[in-house]
Amino acid sequence: MVSWSPFPFASGTRVSIRRLLPDGMATDTVGWVHVSDETHVVVTGKRGLETIELATIIAAKEVPPPPPTRERQ
C-alpha cells in the first residue's frame, strides 16, 4: 500500500481520493484540500467537509477544476 504521510497535495488543490471503507469496499471523494496533517486530510466536496484518515487512502491525484455550470433553459 502507498504511504500518504504527509499528504502530498497543498491546501486549495482539487483532488480525487480513493479510500477503503471498513467493509473492504472502496469509495471516491472529489473536492478541494482544506487542511492536512500527519494522519488526516480534510476535503471540501459535494458532501461538505470530509475528514479522511491517510491510512485508508489507496490512491489520490490532482484533478482539474469542475466545468462551469450550464444555464438551464
Description:
With 73 residues, this protein is mainly beta. The protein is 0% helix and 49% strand. Strands 4-3-2-1-5 form a five-stranded antiparallel β-sheet, with no helix packed on it. A hairpin with a 5-residue loop joins strand 1 and strand 2. It is globular and about 45 Å long. The model has no long low-confidence stretch (mean pLDDT 91).
The Cα radius of gyration reads 13 Å
Question: Can you tell me the overall shape?
Answer: globular
Strand order of the largest sheet: 4-3-2-1-5
What sequence of helices (H) and strands (E) makes up the elements? EEEEE
Residue share in β-strands: over 45%
Major sheet: 5 strands, antiparallel
What's the total count of β strands? 5
Q: Given the helix and strand composition, which structural class is it?
A: mainly beta
pLDDT averaged over residues: 91
Helix content: under 10%
* Low-pLDDT sequence parts: none
Number of helices, counting only DSSP H or I runs of 4 residues or more? 0
CA(first)-CA(last) distance: 47 Å
List keywords for this structure.
five-stranded antiparallel sheet, 5 strands, globular, 73 residues, mainly beta
